[in-house]
UniProtKB/TrEMBL annotation:
Keywords: Signal. Residues 1-23 form the signal peptide. This is Uncharacterized protein. Residues 63-76 have a biased composition (Basic and acidic residues). It comes from Aspergillus bertholletiae. Residues 59-88 are annotated as: Disordered.
Amino acid sequence: MGLSTAAIIVIVIVACLAAVSLAAAMWKQVHPTDHSAHRYNYPRDQELYMRSVRLKNLGGLRQESRTKEPPPRDLESAVYTEDGSSRF
């Protein structure tokens, strides 16, 4: 009684995934990439553009929060009456 065809396929797929993961880990150890030092060195004009976009979005959110309906009431701090209903 040998293994079924489906079991052999699953074993081969798991072994291939393990081999690829091991190869990727070994490659990362042998050939490290040091992009972290230059990761956030953007040109000045791009930094200014992104800052303007963030400030514009922040202003839009601030305006939207002022024009909406009042925030929902805190139900946990509500006063409960004897019949089980709550009132604010």
